[in-house]
Structures are given as C-alpha cells and as structure tokens.
Amino acid sequence: MISQFFVLSQRGDNIVFRDYRGEVPKGSAEIFFRKVKFWEDGGLEEAPPVFNVDGVNYFHVKVVGLLFVATTRVNISPSFVFELLQRIARVIKDYLGILNEDSLRKNFVLVYELLDEVIDFGYVQTTSTELLKSYVFNEPLVIDAARLSPLGPAAIFSQGTKRMPGIAVTKSVVATEPGGRRREEIFVDIIEKISLTFSSSGYILTSEIDGTIQMKSYLTGNPEIRLALNEDLSIGRSQGPVSGYRSSSGSGAVILDDCNFHESVRLDSFDTNRTLSLIPPDGEFPVMNYRMTQAFKPPFRINALIEETGSLKAEVFLKVSAEFASSITANTIKVQMPLPKYTTRVSFELEPGATGQTTDFKETNKRLEWSLKKITGGSEHTLRAKLTFSQESHGNITKESGPVSMTFTIPMYNVSQLQVKYLQIGKKSGTHDPYRWVRYVTQANSYVARI
Amino acid sequence: MSRNDSKYFSTTKKGEIPELKEELNSQYKDKRKDAVKKVIAAMTVGKDVSSLFTDVVNCMQTENLELKKLVYLYLINYAKSQPDLAILAVNTFVKDSQDPNPLIRALAVRTMGCIRVDKITEYLCDPLQRCLKDDDPYVRKTAAICVAKLYDINAELVEDRGFLESLKDLISDNNPMVVANAVAALAEIQDNSSRPIFEITSHTLSKLLTALNECTEWGQVFILDALSRYKASDAREAENIVERVTPRLQHANCAVVLSAVKMILQQMELITSTDVVRNLCKKMAPPLVTLLSAEPEIQYVALRNINLIVQRRPTILAHEIKVFFCKYNDPIYVKMEKLEIMIKLASDRNIDQVLLEFKEYATEVDVDFVRKAVRAIGRCAIKLERAAERCISVLLELIKIKVNYVVQEAIIVIKDIFRRYPNTYESIIATLCESLDTLDEPEAKASMIWIIGEYAERIDNADELLESFLESFPEEPALVQLQLLTATVKLFLKKPTEGPQQMIQVVLNNATMETDNPDLRDRAYIYWRLLSTDPEAAKDVVLAEKPVITDDSNNLEPSLLDELLVNIATLSSVYHKPPDAFVTRAHSSAQKTEDDDYPEGSESESSANPANGPASPPTSSYTIPASVAPASPPFAAPVPDLLGDLMGMDNSSLVPIDQPTTPSGPPLPILLPASTGQGLQISAQLTRRDGQVFYSMLFENNSQVPLDGFMIQFNKNTFGLAAAGPLQIPQLQPGTSARTLLPMVMFQNMSQGPPSSVLQVALKNNQQPVWYFNDKILFHVFFTEDGRMERATFLETWRSLPDSNEVSKDFPSIVIGGVDATVELLATSNIFFIAKRKNANQDVFYFSAKMPRGIPLLIELTTVVGNPGVKCAIKTPSPEMSQFLFEAIETLLRS
C-alpha cells in the first residue's frame, strides 16, 4: 500500500498532497524534490523512477510536466505504484478534461474527493472513471481548453487532419457541453509507435511496433461495442528471427508477438473471428496493447553522409525519402544529428524552393536539427550542411557524429496493417447514430539511422 | 498560484478566520458549503484553520454528500490536534454509519478509521461490526480496510472484538472487491503480527483463484501477491495453480503481469516436468518483453526484474536480445539496465550483433552510458572466450578515436581481459602504452600501471613508463599508489637492474614515509620484508600465478538471488536488496526512523555489480597471511637506503643476533640500567656503518621472565632521526642478551624547538611498561663518506663563505699526540685531512667533511703537537650546527 500521494509542479510546489497512513515523516515532498532535482548517485544524472531515502520509498512519474509521486515504507510492487500513478493522472484528466497545474488547483476539492475514493488507507479501490462517477459529487470547473495543448496520444489528432474534432478529446466525461446536450460519439484510435534502426549501410537492424487501440466513449446508456479486427490476425511468433520481408501494401497475415487487453474486454469470440466485445467504461482507456517485431516497410528511408572536405571542414548530407502512398502526409517531422564536439559553425543549404522547413545548429549539445512541417508520400527531401571545426578530426568523423534520429507523425497510416474492420454499437441510444471515429496514426518512437 | 485560481484561495480585508467563521454559520446551505471549501483550501496550503473546528463540525449534519465529505476531510486532518472536540463528531459518525444511504455508511466508517484518536476508536467498533456485515458491498469493502486501520491503532481491540474472523469470512464474499480488500487487510495484519493470522490453505487458495477472474486489476495484484506465499504441496498442485494464473499474463496492467510472473516462477520451482517448464518459459517471454513497451518507469521495473529472472532461467529470453537494444530516446536509467541484460544474454550466437550495438553506444553523447558500453564489451570478452578477440578489436578501434574517457574505460576492461586470458593478447600492450599520457582517472591509471608491472619483462621501457608515474607518487590517489608500489616491485623482481633499484627505493620511501594510508604503508612493509628476507620467496609471492577471473555478469550471490527471486515484482527486486535492508515499519507519523545509514535503493548499481570493473586492484588479491604482516609499527618508520638490505645481503641490517655487531671499540653506553628497567638493561649508541646510520643496541634480560614484542619509537628531535624499520629483537629468555643494528633515517620527525642533541627513546615490550630513556646524538655519525675535498675546492669554499660563518672554540685540555693517528682517527668518522701548515710554533691542520644534504664543513685545528690546548675553528654554510660539530670533534679527539 502507499503512504502518500502528491503532485508537485516543476518548481516543486505542492499542488495536491494526500497522506493516507501518517507513517512518513513530514517534509517528504521536499526531500523528494531535492533528491530528484540534484540527483547524483550511481553515476546517473537522472533519478531513477523509484528510490529510497531514510526508509521511505519514493515513486514518481512525470505527466504533462507535473510530478506525480507516491511514497511507501513497505516492499510494495513498484509496477503497481507506477500503473496507479498513471491511472490517477488519467482519472483526473477524465474528470477535468484537461490536466495541468491550473486545472488541478481550480478543482482541488474534486481532486481530493477523487483521491479519497481511489485510495483508502493506501489501498487502491478503483481507478475506473465509470465506477467513480457514482461516488464523486463535485462538478469539475472546466478551464478554457482552446489555449491549452491537450494530453495523451490522442492529442495528435487535434492537428493535421480536418476530420478530427480535436476538442472532443479534451472534454470532461462528466461535464456537460456548453450547448446543453452531450454529443453521442465514440473514438477508437489505433496508435502505433515504431522503433527502427538502420545500419550504416541501410539495412534494418531492429524494428518494432508498439500499438494501442485506445477508446474514449461518450455514449450514454452503456451500449455494448463490438470491434472486429483482421481475421487473419495471429498471435505468437515462433522463436528466432523472423525471416522474409513483407511489403506493407502486400497481403499477408498480421502476426503479433504479444498483446493484452483491458479488463472490460470479453474475448469470447476473439479466437473464432477476432472480435472484441466490451461495454466501454467512461473515460479514455486502452482496449488492447500489442507488440510486433514482424518486418514492416519503413515509412521513411534516411540517407546520411558526413565527409571531410578540408582540414577543418566537413559536409553533411541528409536525405529523407517518404515511402508511403502520396495520398498520405506525414507531419511535424524532425531530423536530428549529433555533430562532432569540435564543430563550431554550421551553414545549411536546403533544397531549392523548400517551404515549411527550418534548420538549426544547437550549439550547446552540438546537434543539427532539421524540421519539416509536412512530407507527402513518395517525396524526397534533402539537406546539406557545411561544418567548420575548431580542431582536426583524426579521421574519426563518422564515429563522432550521428546517429541520425527522426520523429514524425503520420495520420491515417499504420504500418502493422492491423485494422478495425468494423465498430458496432450494440443498442442505439437516442434516435440518431452516434458518431464513430476510427482513426489511425503512426508515430516514431526511436527511429534511427546510424552512419 | 496564478490569477485563474479558484476563488477559495482569495482573502478578504476583514481577516480570513472571522469571515470564514461567519460564513460557516450561515443559514444558507450553499454559503456554508463554499465556506467549508475555503477552509479546506486554506488547510491544503498549510494554513492553520483548526480554530474553526467546532464551526466546521457543525456543518457535518447534512444530507449533502459533497459537503459531508469536505467536513470529514477536515476532521481527519485536525482530529488529532483537537481530540476533545473530535468527540463532538462521534455521534454524527455513529448515526451516519446507520444511514440508509450506503455511501454515507461507508463514508462514516472510512473516516472514523482514519481518525487516530483513542476516544473515537472506542466508538468505531460497533459501527464497524455492523458494516462488515452490511448488505452493500461498497460498505463491506470499506469496512474490510477499516479493520486494517483499526489494527494499526489498536491490534488488541481487533483481536478481542473478533474482527479477524469477520475479515476471514469476507474472503468468501460474493463481491470480488470485498474479497480483494479483505485479502489486502489480512496480508497487512499478518505482516505486522508474529502470530499466524492469515494462512492460505488449499481451500482459501481455490476460493481466491476463482475470485481472481472477477476482480479489478488492483484486486488481482492484492490476491496474487497474497497467494505467492502459498507453497504448493506437490508438482501437480503447482501446475494447477500455474494454469489458473497464466491468463493473467495477458493483462494490460503491468503490475498484474509481473505479479503473475512472480507466482508462476515460484510454482515452477516445484514443477518437475521439463516440458511444462519449457512451455511456461515460452509463455512468459512475450509478456515480459511487452512490459518494455510500457512507460519508462515500468520498463525500469521490468528490466530490474528481468535481470534477476535471466540469472535463474537464462533460456526464457535467450532469443529476445534484440528487444533490449537501447532506443536513442530511452531514459538513461533504462539504457543502463538494458546494457546489463544484454551482457547477460550475450552468447556466441548473438555476440556480433551485440558488439555492433555496444560499439555504437560507445560513441554516443552520454558519458556514463558510453563508459558502461565500453565496460560491457570487456565483460563480454571475459564471458565469451570465443568472442574475446572480436571484443578486443572493438576496444582497440574505440581507443583509436582517442576520446579520453573511452580510452580510460577501455584500459580498465583490458586489464580484466588480461587477467582472464593470460599470455594471449599482450601484443596490444604497445597500443595501450600510446595512450599513457592521457590517463587522468585513478582507475584507468591503476589499471595501466598494473599492466606495465605484470608484463614488465615484455615492455622494453617498462621502467621509463613507471618512472613517469613516480614523480607524482605523493599526489596520486591511494588506488594508484598501491598499484605503483606493486608494479615497481614486480619490475624490480623481473629486471633487477640499477634503474628499478633506484625506483624501488623511491617508491618504498614514499610509501612508508610520505603517507598516512595504512594500507599502502603495510603493503610497502610487506614487500620490503619479503625482499630483504628472501628475494626468491618474494618472487614466488609477488609473481605468483594469479587465479583466472571469471565472468561477473551473473554477479549476485546465489542466496541473495534466491531471496530476490522470491521477491520478484516488489521493490526488493528493483533495488536488488533483500526487503529487510530497506523496509522499516514506522508507526505513527511523528516517529522518525533511525535508519539513516540504509543504503539508498538507487545505488543498487554498486551492490548489484560488486565485481563490475576492478574496483579493487587486482593485485590486492595477494592476501598475505596476517601473521607475516609487521606488527603494525606505531610509528611512521621510513626506509632510507633499502638497497643495502635489499640487494647487498652482505651488509644486512638484520644482523644475526649472536654475532657481535660492534666488533671493536668501547662497549655501548648503558642507557637503561637493569635497576631501572625491572631487569631489562639497554645499551645503545648511534653509529655509522657503510654510509648508513644505525642505532646499535644491546638488550640484556636480567629479569625472571622471557621478554618479547619489542618495539621502539624515537621522539621528535633536532635531526629528525627515526627508525627505518621495525625493531628486530627475538624473544629474550631470562639471562640472555641480543644485539641489533637498527637502521635509522634523518629528517623524519623533526622537532621544531631549539637545537638539541638529546634523543628521547621509548621502548616497549609485551611484558613490561614502556621505558623512556635519553641518548645523546653524536653528530659525527652524520658525516658522509664523500666529504673529502680537493685542496683547491677547499680554499675556494673557505673564501666563498663570509667570515660570519666562521666559529671557533678552544679545547684547553685536549692533547694531540700523534698527527697520523689523529688524521686516521678522524678519517674513520669521515673527517678528511686536507693540509697542514706551520704557523710559528703551532701546527695548523685543515680538514673537510660533509654533512647530510651535502652541506660542506671546513675545519681548522690549531695546536702545538704534544701540548694541551686545541683551538678549533669551523666554517660552514650552517653555522647553527657548530655547537654539535664542536661536541662531535671534541669527542673524537678525546677518544
């Protein structure tokens, strides 16, 4: 069980503080903050997520720049606490619509009420927004969402595509819309984060997809939802490396290495026809998480070259090729490359007519940054950069620069080919069809090319 | 707080407390509610609003749940400081616990349990009893936790009132939430009780396994953790349990997955069928890997646990090494753990892939990570013999980049590789030596020095290389000093030539005189003794074949590993420390625990990898039996000229006892007569032999008991005389005597006071009190052998010194008889005859001598040969010594 839960701002101010057991000495928040701020143990510059000071164990996660912290004196399950901290953040967000310092302060009474229902004497009672609704009576004071950036993976939908009602994901599950009646809608998001490493010669060394089917329901009457996935979906990869290469446009079974499901999901017909059925609780939750190491066609190829062009000079050449359909556009692309430490100046040369691209040389960490607002499928973009060095490079220039890393978001695209074939709402509430949003997005997690 | 903050935080001119008081007593419900909110707001920012206690409690009687909750929150906070007032609330609590609304019943019992006031606790029992049997599961599950609260306040009360039985009944409740809370409460009570309270029988087991499927995710963790204490009776039962638990691996909640893994691992110990075990391993791998897709905090927990799991069952993830490759955006604490696991999973099959990764990491930006990557390469080399060569070539490649910290880490691991594969890869030493100048970290320096010493015979300029380190010996950290000492000894044993001889003198000198570090000093003494007693034995010891080191990546003690595996999915498995190393139950908040010296969990790195890198220098493994070590001399004894006793065994200072050490000359003066020394008589005198000052001593035991354990110490004195080594006197039987020549050094423990020739000596043995006696320092023992001057030099020196440096003294009663005899006599004390001239009827003799540190001394003796009266004039750059010089000359001329 946990002893205390608290939320600190980035500056270390107490925003929320709840002591459940009175067994941790006063000042724990301060002790914690000082320790995290000036961490110096074990050669690490960053505090590990859990540590012990004077017999008190401190757990923390960072959520939208806030520190969510729990303390305990006992040999508790740490993953339990981390899950809990994340879940508390999610519940609060479900209630407040937007989670930040401002909304927490404004709704402190509600937050305390929630915390008392979520945890009793350090024991978690429930983190289900749905269940909590019957015990929690305070109304949220929703703060102005327009000027705030929303939280969570679904936030990516608020940008780029016009179809997505971005505001929807930032609305509270309990507060009523200003217009009076709630809009009946349900969001199903297939979010895939891909990690991929290209070797210096362009081979794919490792590739992995971490996927989540996320759901957020604003349906009244708790209807049952049926979610059908690819019929040829199979789970469990035979051990050993996967052989064979599968193009993302070709056919072939989707093979998941592993997957898991939200507790509300019933798998009765999953084995026969790959259909999940559930009565979605209120709030945002992952219906299913999955992981794939099956080879996939990388959305981007990266070519990176660095060459010495003189005694104190070198040139970097970067090329990014979008290998997906031209109907699809990736956005917020950022390419980064660490340069040799003795780099003093960088001059950039973008391709002629380039728009929406910016370049920068971060002096402090000697990093080249290249941002592109969007890349349409099938296109290629290049960047040349001339480097000036303060010392000779000893011919190790490739070892002292790179790897090139890339972040991007590609809406309406998923590399795994996992699909929601249909989304069926059991019994209709109201007269008209609720809005159903099924959205796909692919994001880079660790997308790296070595040089 | 920003401007947008809630109105509840605003203050008014009137004064907050009176204003709130007024509002709390308002006739309007809404106003009262707002007021309570304001009170709570003030409370949460640390303001003292306890003076409003009665006013707030007055708001308690309301049907409005929102308001009631706020009042309860206030009560929990202030009841402790206002116990008498809190009693006022009891009636409402008791009433509320019977409210038709289950939420109010539960709220009342939940809140009462949180108020740690004895008087309230008394009133809690009846409502609690009722609530444990309430119709509503929400009330029952709240009551279950309340029993744990009450136990924390008053365990006896819980047992007396039979609450434990009620709790146990709740295990069979039809609501899984109630079951989960009952299990959690019972588990906590069991943890705090020495009596068996919550024993899991096969009956409870099956009930709980059934409840598992219905429970919330959190309840599943409570139940799984409680069940993990259950010991299955046989393999069959274990298999059954595992079968019921395995579906939990598919849960989205990582805590459920890890608790399930724990349970399965524990039952697997009982399962005998290898097929079943293999199958289970196969089932556990994907969920374990999936944990690495969770938030970094959970990844960290998973990695620390996987680290333990693969130590016990390496096959589970043998094929999954790729998932442990670091992502560039992993937090550093995740990367570090991944590296550890990569080393553990590295095999001949995947080493090329792994090396490629490590090489890449070794050129990243984060210095700590880079260092760890370099070490990882070394550890793989040590672990996988067939891959060692490939690892080394990667290391050499990295050295060539010439990034300072990479080079240093590489050298540290290469030293380990040399120890693992002796006589295999020494060809790379030359490459290593190129980087010598760039080493500035102690561990790297120490490693390089170790390599030089170990392979001194193969490195042509080993002596030069070592010498370059010697200059800074006194400033080096202890780690480096120890290695320098050992390496120099090795060098000397392998190449006993002049260079190394001098070096060893310097090193031993430094290591014994210039240091406060007892380890260094003791090690130096051991070497010194070894070398001086038996150089061959020294070779056998110092150059002995070292045990080959092994792979340290499975580095937990088996017993610790066992204990940690039992604690999988707990903090213990993250810290890699047994629970009792960090768990201290502190009851009641006021109590501050005294466990300040408990190590912090986060540094488990060090405890997890005690052998990670050569924290202890490799040569420190020459554990020399304690009995050989010198009996820790209580003084910092220096070694002036060890070569004498190291090499030239002919003039050893360790003169056999039965051999007369002062073959001629007068007997030694008695300094401690037997009458004073309880039968121990000591005669002693400073003497010079073969360029070295000795303290010639004679011990005579006239007492009735054998005497042993002699030790000597000299007080600070003008010349800084001190013993150069321990006193070597064997046990003295009654009636026997022993002589010794104790080597002495100068300028060691100089006294700051006025010059004096007194030498205070303290001597002890095991049987008697400490004896103190005084000796007189005769300066002529300090005249060095090279004091002879050419006439021209003499004249030049004489002239160059100002007249103020000339001092003279008359010795009226001394007669110089024979000139030749006198010249010869003085020459034995290193006073050398230069010239003689006649001045009227007087003879004038000129002599030269040299004092330590090369200070010249010019002497002019004027006398009429055969007649009493000698005038002695001396000229020296150090005229302050004249007093001692005259004393010395007078003594010599008289003898």
From TrEMBL, chain A:
One of its GO terms (cellular component) is endomembrane system. It is found in: Endomembrane system. The keyword Protein transport applies. Residues 183-450 form the MHD domain. Keywords: Membrane, Protein transport, Transport. One of its GO terms (biological process) is vesicle-mediated transport. CDD domains: AP-4_Mu4_Cterm (cd09253), AP4_Mu_N (cd14838). SUPFAM superfamilies: Second domain of Mu2 adaptin subunit (ap50) of ap2 adaptor, SNARE-like. Belongs to the adaptor complexes medium subunit family. This is AP-4 complex subunit mu-like isoform X1. The gene is LOC101501240.
TrEMBL record, chain B:
Belongs to the adaptor complexes large subunit family. Its main location: membrane. Subunit of clathrin-associated adaptor protein complex that plays a role in protein sorting in the late-Golgi/trans-Golgi network (TGN) and/or endosomes. The AP complexes mediate both the recruitment of clathrin to membranes and the recognition of sorting signals within the cytosolic tails of transmembrane cargo molecules. Residues 585-626 are annotated as: Disordered. One of its GO terms (molecular function) is clathrin binding. Keywords: Cytoplasmic vesicle, Golgi apparatus, Membrane, Protein transport, Transport. GO terms for biological process: intracellular protein transport; vesicle-mediated transport. It comes from Cicer arietinum. Pfam families: Adaptin_N, Alpha_adaptinC2, B2-adapt-app_C. This is Beta-adaptin-like protein. Residues 660-774 form the Clathrin adaptor alpha/beta/gamma-adaptin appendage Ig-like subdomain domain. It comes from the Eukaryota. It is found in: Cytoplasmic vesicle, Clathrin-coated vesicle membrane; Golgi apparatus, trans-Golgi network. Residues 783-894 form the Beta-adaptin appendage C-terminal subdomain domain. Residues 604-626 have a biased composition (Low complexity). Coiled coil: none annotated. Adaptor protein complexes are heterotetramers composed of two large adaptins (beta-type subunit and alpha-type or delta-type or epsilon-type or gamma-type subunit), a medium adaptin (mu-type subunit) and a small adaptin (sigma-type subunit). Residues 594-603 have a biased composition (Acidic residues). SUPFAM superfamilies: ARM repeat, Clathrin adaptor appendage domain, Subdomain of clathrin and coatomer appendage domain. InterPro entries: AP_beta, AP_complex_bsu_1_2_4, ARM-like, ARM-type_fold, B-adaptin_app_sub_C, Clathrin/coatomer_adapt-like_N, Clathrin_a/b/g-adaptin_app_Ig, Clathrin_app_Ig-like_sf. It is a peripheral membrane protein. One of its GO terms (cellular component) is clathrin adaptor complex. SMART domains: Alpha_adaptinC2, B2-adapt-app_C.
